[in-house]
Amino acid sequence: MKDNRKTDGISRKERVKKILVKVVTYLFLSVFALAMIFPFYWMLISSVKTVDEYNLSTPTLWPHDFRWDTYLTAFTGDLDLGRLFLNTVLVGVVSTLLSLVVTVLSAYAFARLEFKGKNLLFGAMLATMMIPGELFTVTNYITVSSFHWIYDLKEGPTFWNASLPYLSLIVPFLVSVFYIYLLRQNFMQIPNELYLAAKVDGASDLKYLWKVMIPLASPTLITITILKMMGSWNSYMWPQLVANDDLHRLVTVGLRGASFNIAGTNLIDYPLQMAAVVLVTVPLLLVFIFFRKYIMRGVSRSGIKG
Amino acid sequence: MKNKIGAIMLAGSMLCTVAIGFTGCIGEGTINNSGSSTDDLANVTLATSGGFKMPEGGFDIEKPVTISFYHTMGKVLKEKLDYQLELFKELFPNITVVDAKYGNYDDVHTQIGQEITAGNQPNIAYCYGDHVADYNVSNSVLAINDFLPGGTYADEKITLANGDEYNLGLTVEEKNMFVENFYNEGHMFGDGKMMYMLPFAKSTEVMFYNKNFFNDNKLKVPTTWDELWETCERILEIDPDCIPFGYDSEANWFITMCEQYDSAYTYPTGTAANRFRFDNEKNRSFVGKLAENFQKGYFTTQEMNSGTYTSSLFTSLTEPKCYMCVGSTAGGQYQKPQLVNGQYAFEAGIAQIPQIDPDHPKAISQGPSVCIFKSDDPQEVLASWLLVKYLTTNIEFQADFSIDSGYMPPLKMEYMMTLDSYKNELEENANGTTGLAALSAKMCLEQKDAYFTSPAFVGSSRARTEVGALLQAVFSNTSIDSAFQTAVRNCIESIT
């Protein structure tokens, strides 16, 4: 009886301790979650405020008057969000598809094929991950410029002058050592016996890759697709340098450089700017919300922390 | 090859944050630890040639030539530009101008810095002196001396499409249209003999004050710093919850004080240690005085106001308010009082910023200039020069641009006032509520002799950043000794 009371006492203490730890943990997480969410909330409510309300020195947490025309103006006004979206989607989709092809073939070669200098080559590729991408910017710029992949303002929108600049947005980033590494690790986890069995059945390497490896590695491939699309959507520095003209501008650059002045004045229509930011942010946010499990699964399967 | 390497180095440095870190293009200057170098450079006689070689037969009005122009103009200003480009095309049908808008001045700078590495730079661009100093690491900007009065091709004539004769260079009359100090900014480089820019649109700092508050409390608008501190003390007695005075840019404040005290700030040539001259007794003394007054609660600055422009305090309806505020004329619309029940909360007044010597006022000059880039095709260079000359000396364009942008024209008031629409804008629409831009433009044009700019060289933008940080540090209780030493050390390290 005495022992039971003691046990009850300890378990009650432990329970209280557990609850306290949970309360503190959730409080802590809630505070940080709020800190993360607040800028998005601010962006959303600012996008539907009137300019006068936005400019109040004491900001309002909930709009007095809602103004929805900002979202329409973002598409129909000077910003030309439609064109920016089109360019971004085009570059994002094409570069993701091509990047997947390059990544799958390279990862397969490094995971399954035997050739001279394989490990040395892979090590050299990994070593390039240590070099910040920004350092390649100047040389990449000179390269794409010498290929005439930069829009020539003086030549105007001729077929080639209008088309080639898309290559400067896509080609330099087709090879991602990180994605190759990620997929190679995943491919290496697939038992070799499957490969040997496929060989006995007379399957070629490509057929084995297509029929066995790709389906088994699909979570990682989905992860790579999402990450690549997100990277492409968010890229700013390079597109700003090579495609900062009306025809080829991407959403990030367009948003950054747009003038949101109220016609005839030097006043800035911040609610309109916020509406444009919401429109640009929402697609990515949705992708992340709906596909986050794939991102986490793909990364964790490859034994790499994201 | 040398130029290419320079260009690559330039771009690399820009990408690594700010364009700093070179010691090229530096001549030796005399060491002078007191007095400003801006007056010395302004008085230098320009070289008669910038090195441009006129093609045989001069400018060919038959040969089509396309030139590019990078700027930051939004839709409204672009419409004004397009209109003028149409008129320009009537004068010079063979010249086609294509233009591109970039986000802000730094974006134009970054873009061109990168393009120089591949030889893709535009023909004309918006610029600040610091940018030109960076571009000239690879010797890319054209010195326009040949086209200025006394220059090699100043009197060269061109026959226009309509048969009229047109002077290629800037005539003495045209040169005299410019506010002298704005014009002189164009050669605040190196030994001051080469002219690289013409002023395009200008802004400066003025003091906005709450006219109603001043009238109600019988306060006099301060004209000197001593008067300002006395006024701050009085205001705090009247409204103990306020911060009487706001100054937006710490860096501008430091540089302006150096100029007003005639104490050393920077020098464009010489060794690294000799170029950053702002650590001296005069400057330490005024920084000490500012820190003292900051502790008394007399003022705040943008960074000390959590990074928010002090205009937010000036227009605020709740405490803490401020009743005097020094800000850019280009941002005059942000000083507009708020509407309360259909009435403006107060009327704003505009005055010259406080001075050390009100008889010799000094106010910083800001705003974009334009520069021309070198090109293998001399016809492009000539066409670019013709456009730059046309836009900068065009009263109609300058008036339209000024009214719509809030910037002031770089041309003297007597020339601007010859245009009725501009005269009306300044005389009829200038007021302390809806017409602040016009009111400030009027005041700025009147103080034409007050403007100064600091010399531009590789590292000058860093000096500006560091003196701003220095003031912030001192206001946050860092010792004056330590703040000055850190600022100078950072400046020197940035170019060695």
What does this structure look like?
The complex is a heterodimer of chains A (306) and B (496). Chain A has two domains: 2-47; 71-301, MetI-like (MetI-like fold, Orthogonal Bundle). Chain A contains 14 helices and no strands. Helix content of chain A is 71%, strand content 0%. Chain A is flat. Chain B is an alpha/beta fold and 496 residues long. Chain B is 42% helix and 12% strand. The longest helix of chain B is centred in the N-terminal third of the chain and has 17 residues, at 75-91. The two termini of chain B are 23 Å apart.
Give a quick rundown of the structure.
The complex is a heterodimer of chains A (306) and B (496). By secondary structure, chain A is mainly α.
Chain-wise SSE layout:
The complex is a heterodimer of chains A (306) and B (496).
Chain A (H helix, E strand, L loop, with lengths): L1 H46 L3 H4 L14 H8 L4 H32 L5 H10 L9 H10 L12 H12 L6 H12 L3 H9 L4 H12 L1 H17 L2 H6 L8 H7 L12 H32 L5
Chain B lengths: L1 H14 L21 H6 L22 E7 L3 H17 L3 E7 L3 H14 L5 E4 L1 H7 L21 E3 L5 E3 L4 H6 L2 H5 L12 E3 L5 E6 H6 L8 H14 L6 E3 L2 H12 L10 H4 L5 H15 L3 E3 L9 H4 L9 E5 L10 E2 L2 E2 L3 E4 L11 E2 L4 E4 L5 H15 L2 H11 L7 H4 L3 H9 L7 H11 L4 E2 L7 H16 L4 H16 L1
Parallel strand pairs in B: 1-2, 1-3, 8-9, 8-10, 14-16
Antiparallel strand pairs in B: 3-15, 4-5, 6-15, 7-10, 7-13, 11-12
Helix pairs in contact in B: 1-4, 3-15, 10-12, 10-19, 19-20
